[in-house]
Amino acid sequence: MSTAEAAPPPGIAARLFSSGAHQKLLAFASLIALLIGFTLASPNFMQMSNIIAILQATSVNGVLAIGVTLVIITGGIDLSVGTLMTFCSVIAGVVLTYWGLPLPVGIVAAIAAGTLCGLASGTFVAKMKIPPFIATLGMMLMLKGLSLVISGTRPIYFNDTPGFTDISRGSIVETIIPGLPIPNGVLILFIVAIATSYILGRTILGRYTFALGSNEEAVRLSGVNTDAWKMAIYALAGGICGIAGLLIASRLNSAQPALGLGYELEAIAAVVIGGTSLAGGRGTIMGTLIGALIMSVLTNGLRILSVEQEWQTVVTGAIIILAVYADMLRKRRTS
Predict the structure, then answer these.
(1) How many distinct structural domains can be found in the chain?
(2) Domain holding 134: CATH number?
(3) Residue 5 lies in a domain
(4) Whole-prediction pTM value?
(5) What is the 3-state secondary structure (H, E, C) of 16-80?
(6) Does residue 33 lie in a domain region?
(7) Among 24, 16, 20, 35, residue whose Cα is nearest residue 291
(8) From CA 84, how far away is CA 81, in angstroms rounded?
C-alpha cells in the first residue's frame, strides 16, 4: 500500500477524526472529569496510597491493552489475552518455583510462552482462515485449561524467588528520588508503550499493521506476504501479554491459575475508548494508555464509593457499548 493510499482525507477536521485525535482529546477530558468527580466525592481518592494502587492496576491492564491494540489495528480481535496472561504467569511459576531456575530464565520463559501462543493464534487466523473471534475464543479456553492442568489447580507462590516481587512492586524511582514511590510496574508499562509506539510508527511491521487493517486485500495484491506479517503481529501481542503475566504474578507474589477471565474485556474497552477503531487501520498507543487509566480510575473510584461489584461490572459493560457506538459514529463522519 502506498503512502498516498494510506493518507487520511484532506482538511483539518477530517484529519482529526481520521487520526483519532478527537477521540483522544475526549478520552483525556473524561479522565480529568473522573479524577475531579471522585476527588470531590471522597477525600480518600487522592491519597498517595490510592494513586499508587491505581497505577499498579493500570500497569497490568495497560500492558494487556497495548497488546490488544496491535491486533485490533489489523482489524482482528483477541479474546485470549486475559487467560494468556495467566498462562504466562503459571509458566514463570513452574520455571522459577518448581524447577528452581534463575529469575532471568523465568522472565524469558514467560515472554516466550506468550509469543508462541500469540503465534499460534496468528496461525489459526492467517493460515487456517478461522475468524479472529473464534480462533482467540478457542485459544482462551485452551489456555484456561492448560493453566489449571500445569499448576494442578493450585496457586504457585514465588516466596523462594528473590527479587521477583520487585518486578512490579519495587521502586527504582524511589531509590533515585526519595518520597516518590512510583512502582517498577508503571515504568515497565511506559517502556512497553514507548517501544510499541516506536514499532508502530517507525518500522515496517508497524506500517503493515496499519495497512492490514486498512485494506488487507490491496496489501496482498501488491505482493506482500500478509499471512506472515499477521502472524508476527499476533506473536508480538502475545509476548506483550507475557510481560503482563509477569507483572500480575509479581504483584500478587503468586501465579493464580483461575485468574484472567474478564481482563480481556477491560483491555478491549481501554483500546476502543482510546480511539482505536474496531474496524482496523487506526489507533495509537497513547490513546490506549488514556483508556486504560480511565478504566482503572473508574473501577477504583467506584470501589472507594462502596459500589457493589455487580454494579461495577454493569458500568464496565455500558462503557464498552458506548465506546463501540462512538467508534461507529466516527466511521460515519469520516466516510
Answers:
(1) 1
(2) 1.10.3470
(3) no
(4) 0.90
(5) HHHHCHHHHHHHHHHHHHHHHHHHHHCCCCCCHHHHHHHHHHHHHHHHHHHHHHHHHHCCCCCCC
(6) yes
(7) 24
(8) 5
Give the C-alpha distances (Å, rounded to integers) separating 295 from 13, 270, 289. Answer: 28, 7, 10
Backbone angles phi, psi at 157, to 5 degrees: -100, 150
Quick one: cell of 182? 512510583
The reply to whether 282 falls in a domain is: yes
Over residues 249-270, the pLDDT tens digits come to: 999 999 999 998 889 988 998 9
pLDDT at 90 > cutoff 90: yes
Domain of residue 202 covers 10-334
Q: Are 184 and 171 in contact (CB under 8 A)?
A: yes
pLDDT given at position 20: 56
Residue in the structure block whose three cell numbers are 464496565: 316
Average pLDDT, the chain: 89
* Higher-scoring residue by pLDDT: 241, 19: 241
Q: Does 308 reside within a domain?
A: yes
CB atoms within 10 A of CB 62: 30
87 or 310: which leads in pLDDT: 87
